[in-house]
C-alpha cells in the first residue's frame, strides 16, 4: 500500500511543479499544430488517401520529437532531486523499499504522460463528426504511443537515479532516447536489413506506422516490456548501491 | 533495544567507522558525541537502514537491520541531519503523507498528526508551505515527522542545530520528555547539550569509539586529578599565591592575570575535597588578603572531550592499516 501512498505523493508533486504546465501547454500546442497541418495536407486533392489519425501517430517527426524531449522532462527530477535535496534519506528510512519507490515514481511518470496525450482525444472526436472513423487504428495508435512512451520513461527514470542532478539526468536521457530512436532508423536506411532482422524489431518508426494502421504486433509490445523491466530493475539496483557507497 | 556489534564502514579510500560496538537499553537517552566528521551520522544512518555497513551487525528491537529493514524502519522515528523536507508541501500535507507512508492506520492519522503538531508547537504554521518556514520551524517539522506513529525508538541526528537558544531549550525539554517512554539516540557535537539531556554518552572520534559511560562517570574518571578552583583576590602585597600554595590539598596555583592594583585571579588545581575551599578562605583571613570571589568546577564533558579527541589525534592511526577515519 506504500506504493499507492507514494504514487499519490509523486503525482501531486508533479502537478505542483510549474514546468509541468509548460509541458502540457507545449505538447497541446504542438499536437494541435500537427493536427491542423495534417488536415491541411489532406485537404489538398493531390495528397494520397491516408487516414488522419494514422498520420497523427508517428506520421510526422513532431510525434517523435515530443516523445524524446518530453519524457526526460517528466522523469529528470523524480529521483535526482530527492538525492540532491537529501529527501531520499527521509523517504528510504520510512517503511518503504527501493523497488516500491521506483515503481511509484515510474507509475506517476506514466500517469502524467498519459495526461499529456489526453487533449489529443479531441481530434478523433472532432473528425468523427465529419466522417467515418475507424476505431481500431485509433486505439492501436494510442496503445503504441503509450507503450513507446512507457519505454522512454523507464529508460529516463534510470538516468534520474544515476545522474548527479536533474540537468545531467535530462541530458543523458535525451541522448539515450536519440540512440533508441536512431537504431531503428538505421534499419530503414540500410537496404541490407532483412525484414525480420533484429534491427527491424527495434525500428520505432516502423512500429508506429503499424500501430497507426491498426496492426498490433505483440513483438513490439514485448520489446517495450523487456526494456522497461530491465531498466527498472537497473534503477532499483542503482538506488540500492547507494547503501554501500554512502 | 539496540545492539550494535563490530560495526565497520569503509569507503573506497577511507574508514568511516571502525569496530564500533554498543548497546542501548529501553527508555534510555544515549548521546552520540564527537567532532564533525567523526562518524556519528554514518552510525545513525546504518541503524536506520539507510546505509549498509562493510561488516558487523546491528539489531534493533529484535530485528537485524539488514535482514529485516522494514520491521526496523517501523519502530524508528528518524530525524536526519539537515532535515531534508519536501519544500513544496504544506506542513499538514507533509505530515499527512508521512503518516500514511509510515502506515499509521487511517482512523488514527488525524490524531497522530495533531499530537505531533502540538508537541512540536507547529500549530500556527500547519497551513504554511514548508519552503517558506524558518530553519527553526523546519527542524520542528522534521521532529514532528519523526514522532508520527509513536515509534519506540527515536534517532535524532543533530536535533538542535540551527535553532535559537529558546528553541534549543524547548527541543531539549521535549527530548527529555520523550525519553521517558522511548529509547532515544541523539548525536551532537555540542557538549552541554549531551550533558543536559542524555543518561549515557558515547564519544566517537575518527570512526572509533573512544569513551563511553554516564556523563557523571566520565567526569569522575577525569577528576581523579582534582577540581579547578578559581579565586579572585585583592592582594596588593602579593602574598596570596604563596599562601594558597601552602594550603593542604592544593596541588598547583596559576596566576594568569596580574594587574598592578592588586586585583588578581588565581586558578588553583586541588583535590576534589570540599574542605580545600574552606582552608583557602582561612588562609586569606590569616594572611590578610581579601577574597572577592571563589568558584569551583569539576571537569566538564568538554574537558574530557578535548582531552580524548586531541590525545587520540596525536597518535598516528597506524594500528589498523588504512584507518584514517573522518569520512565526509
Question: Quick recap of the structure?
Answer:
With 246 residues, chain A is mostly helical. Chain A has helices at 2-16, 18-43, 52-56, 61-85, 87-92, 98-117, 122-130, 135-162, 166-189, 198-201, 204-212, 218-245.
What is the strand and helix layout of this fold?
The complex is a heterodimer of chains A (246) and B (328).
Chain A: H1 2-16, H2 18-43, H3 52-56, H4 61-85, H5 87-92, H6 98-117, H7 122-130, H8 135-162, H9 166-189, H10 198-201, H11 204-212, H12 218-245
Helix pairs in contact in A: 1-6, 2-4, 4-6, 4-8, 4-9, 6-8, 6-12, 8-9, 8-11, 8-12
Chain B: E1 2-10, E2 15-24, E3 29-33, H1 40-47, E4 55-60, E5 63-64, H2 69-75, E6 76-79, H3 91-101, H4 106-119, H5 135-147, E7 153-157, H6 165-178, E8 183-188, H7 191-197, E9 200-205, E10 208-213, H8 215-223, E11 227-234, H9 240-245, E12 250-258, E13 263-270, H10 275-287, E14 290-297, H11 301-314
Parallel strand pairs in B: 3-8, 3-9, 6-7, 7-8
Antiparallel strand pairs in B: 1-2, 1-4, 4-5, 9-10, 11-13, 11-14, 12-13
Helix pairs in contact in B: 3-4, 4-5
Amino acid at each position: 500500500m506504500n506504493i499507492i501512498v507514494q504514487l499519490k505523493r509523486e503525482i501531486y508533486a508533479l502537478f505542483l511543479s510549474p514546468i509541468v504546465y509548460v509541458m502540457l501547454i507545449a505538447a497541446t500546442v504542438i499536437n494541435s499544430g500537427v493536427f491542423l497541418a495534417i488536415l491541411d495536407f489532406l485537404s489538398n486533392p493531390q495528397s494520397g488517401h491516408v487516414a488522419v489519425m494514422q498520420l497523427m501517430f508517428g506520421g510526422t517527426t513532431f510525434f517523435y520529437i515530443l516523445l524524446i524531449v518530453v519524457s526526460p522532462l517528466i522523469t529528470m527530477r523524480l529521483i535526482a532531486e530527492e538525492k540532491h535535496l537529501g529527501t531520499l534519506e527521509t523517504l528510504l528510512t520510512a517503511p518503504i523499499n527501493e523497488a516500491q519507490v521506483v515503481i511509484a515514481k515510474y507509475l506517476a511518470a506514466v500517469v502524467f504522460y498519459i495526461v499529456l496525450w489526453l487533449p489529443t482525444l479531441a481530434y478523433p472526436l472532432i473528425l468523427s463528426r465529419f466522417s467515418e472513423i475507424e476505431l481500431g487504428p485509433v486505439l492501436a495508435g494510442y496503445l503504441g504511443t503509450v507503450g513507446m512512451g512507457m519505454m522512454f520513461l523507464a529508460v529516463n527514470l534510470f538516468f534520474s537515479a544515476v545522474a548527479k542532478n536533474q540537468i545531467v539526468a535530462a541530458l543523458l536521457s535525451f541522448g539515450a532516447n536519440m540512440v533508441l530512436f536512431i537504431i531503428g532508423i538505421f534499419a530503414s536506411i540500410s537496404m541490407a536489413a532483412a525484414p525480420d532482422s533484429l534491427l527491424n524489431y527495434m525500428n520505432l518508426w516502423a512500429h508506429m506506422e503499424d500501430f497507426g494502421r491498426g496492426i498490433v504486433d505483440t513483438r513490439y509490445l514485448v520489446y517495450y516490456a523487456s526494456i522497461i523491466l530491465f531498466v527498472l530493475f537497473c534503477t532499483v539496483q542503482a538506488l540500492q548501491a547507494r547503501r554501500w557507497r554512502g | 533495544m539496540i545492539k550494535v556489534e563490530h560495526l565497520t564502514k569503509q569507503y573506497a579510500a577511507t574508514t568511516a567507522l571502525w569496530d564500533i560496538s554498543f548497546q542501548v537499553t529501553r527508555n534510555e537517552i544515549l548521546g552520540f558525541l564527537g567532532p564533525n566528521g567523526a562518524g556519528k551520522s554514518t552510525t545513525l544512518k546504518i541503524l536506520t537502514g539507510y546505509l549498509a555497513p562493510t561488516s558487523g551487525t546491528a539489531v534493533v528491537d529484535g530485528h537485524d537491520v539488514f535482514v529485516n529493514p522494514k520491521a526496523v524502519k517501523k519502530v524508528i522515528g528518524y530525524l536526519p541531519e539537515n532535515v531534508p523536507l519536501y519544500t513544496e508541501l504544506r506542513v499538514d500535507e507533509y505530515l499527512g503523507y508521512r503518516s500514511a507512508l509510515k502506515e499509521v492506520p487511517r482512523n488514527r492519522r488525524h490524531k497522530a498528526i495533531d499530537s505531533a503538531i502540538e508537541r512540536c508547537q507547529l500549530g500556527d504554521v500547519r497551513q504554511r508551505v514548508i519552503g517558506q518556514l524558518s530553519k527553526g520551524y523546519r527542524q520542528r517539522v522534521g521532529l514532528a515527522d519523526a514522532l508520527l506513529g509513536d515509534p519506540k525508538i527515536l534517532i535524532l541526528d543533530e536535533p538542535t542545530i540551527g535553532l535559537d537558544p529558546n528553541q534549543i531549550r524547548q527541543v531539549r525539554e521535549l527530548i527529555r520528555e520523550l525519553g521517558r517512554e522511548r529509547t532515544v539516540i541523539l548525536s551532537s557535537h555540542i557538549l552541554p547539550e549531551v550533558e543536559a539531556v542524555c543518561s549515557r554518552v558515547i564519544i566517537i572520534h575518527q570512526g572509533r569509539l573512544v569513551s563511553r559511560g554516564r556523563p557523571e562517570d566520565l567526569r569522575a574518571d577525569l577528576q581523579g586529578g582534582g577540581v579547578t578552583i578559581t579565586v579572585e583576590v585583592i592582594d596588593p602585597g602579593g602574598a596570596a599565591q604563596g599562601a594558597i600554595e601552602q594550603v593542604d590539598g592544593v596541588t598547583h596555583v596559576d596566576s594568569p592575570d596580574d594587574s598592578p592594583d592588586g586585583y588578581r585571579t588565581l586558578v588553583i588545581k586541588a583535590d576534589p575535597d570540599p574542605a580545600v575551599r574552606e582552608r583557602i578562605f582561612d588562609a586569606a583571613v590569616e594572611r590578610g588578603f581579601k577574597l572577592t570571589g571563589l568558584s569551583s568546577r569539576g571537569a566538564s564533558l568538554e574537558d574530557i572531550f578535548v582531552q580524548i579527541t586531541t590525545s587520540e589525534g596525536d597518535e598516528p592511526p597506524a594500528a589498523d592499516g588504512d584507518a584514517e577515519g573522518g569520512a565526509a
